[in-house]
């Protein structure tokens, strides 16, 4: 498994890389190679952050080769919220 290196990068539980492109409060937009249906929960790991990223999907659409997923964070700790604030 390759660790993502860019700011806002994460690794899905399936091992695929992803990127947070926007975060405002608990609303979040991310891109990944996988689609997610509305109502699903995206689970991912962020290097250097203890709490896993969990996003409840509102909608998902294909943009080029990737899928853009919008939703809201679930069970976010202060550490995770601070990480999201730093990339926004």
The run of helices and strands is: EEEEEEH
Give the low-pLDDT segments.
1-5
Count the domains. Answer: 1
The helicity comes to: 10-25%
Shape: globular
Terminal Cα separation, in Å? 26 Å
Strand content: over 45%
Largest sheet: 6 strands, antiparallel, barrel
Strand order of the largest sheet: 1-2-3-6-5-4
Which class best fits the helix and strand makeup? mainly beta
Mean pLDDT equals: 90
Please tally the β strands and state the result: 6
Tally of alpha and pi helices? 1
Calculate Rg over CA atoms: 12 Å
What is the gist of this entry?
This protein has one helix at residues 78-87, and strands at residues 9-12, 17-24, 27-32, 41-45, 53-63, 66-73. It is mainly beta. The radius of gyration is 12 Å and the shape is globular.
Describe the protein's architecture and organization.
With 88 residues, this protein is mainly beta. It has one domain. It is 11% helix and 48% strand. It has one helix and six strands; from the N terminus they run ββββββα. It has a six-stranded antiparallel beta barrel with strand order 1-2-3-6-5-4. Strand 4 and strand 5 (53-63) form a beta hairpin.
